[in-house]
Amino acid sequence: VLVHAQALLTSGPQGRTDYIEADLRDPAKILEAARRTLDFDRPIALVLAAVLHFIEDEEAYPVVRQLVEALPSGSHLVLSHLSADLNPVAINKVADTFRKRGFSFVLRRREEIGRFLSDNGLEPLEPGIVPSRHWRPDHAADATEARGAAPEHLEELDHLDQGQYVSIAEATDEDVNIFVTVARKP
Q1: Which of 36, 97, 133, 160 is 20 to 30 Å from 139 at the Cα level?
Q2: Distance in angstroms (rounded) separating the CA atoms of residues 159 and 14
Q3: Cβ-based neighbour number of residue 108 at 10 Å
Q4: Is 180 strand, coil or helix?
Q5: Topology of the domain covering 41-137+172-184
Q6: Where in the chain are the domains?
Q7: DSSP secondary structure string, 40-105?
Q8: Its pTM surpasses 0.90
Q9: Per-residue DSSP letters for 86-155?
Q10: Cβ(130)–Cβ(179) under 8 Å?
Q11: 30-64 pLDDT per residue, tens
């Protein structure tokens, strides 16, 4: 990740780019480094995509609170989180694999994910906390066309690799165990 980030670290008249290597459980370090690049007098987008399920409750909720408290009014939190609400059998197999490898892995219910918003006074944007395929799918590109896959190429792939070519419109809630939301800080 660091090597890729360094390759992308270019700044120009439109803005600056920076990268820090830190543990999400150390929000003070993250905020200190972010202040060197970001203007905390203007709205900021905090993106916590597929990371909070690696942090236990006793740390996750306070971490988000510290990060959100530092954000100015008008900022947004973008959050995605794995959950067992949609397809518990499949996602619990994934969770067990991570746990066996020594990782913390917390599958939070939709209501528990909602606490990241309600505990911090955030206002969810429509459509709220929903399975990822329901987050504004109206303009989703067809995955096969977008990736330029020929039908004969798809037949050569195993089931897992074919998944990257499935249109979000064809997915079911059971196919995607991820809730997503965007919320605004008043």
Answers
A1: 160
A2: 42
A3: 20
A4: strand
A5: Rossmann fold (3.40.50)
A6: 1-38, 41-137+172-184
A7: TTS--EEEEES-GGGS-HHHHHHHHHHHHHHSPTT-EEEEEEE-SSS-HHHHHHHHHHHHHTT---
A8: no
A9: S-HHHHHHHHHHHHHTT-------HHHHHHHHHTTT-EEPTT-SEEGGGSSGGGPPPHHHHHT--HHHHH
A10: yes
A11: 999 999 989 999 999 999 999 999 999 999 999 99
Single-letter amino acid code for the residue at 90 = A
For the stretch 125-166, pLDDT in tens is: 999 999 987 776 565 555 445 455 666 766 776 554 666 666
Residue whose entry in the numeric block shows the structure tokens 């510290």: 66
Q: What is the dihedral of CA 84, 130, 67, 43, to 10 degrees?
A: 170
User: Identity (one letter) of the amino acid at 163?
Assistant: G
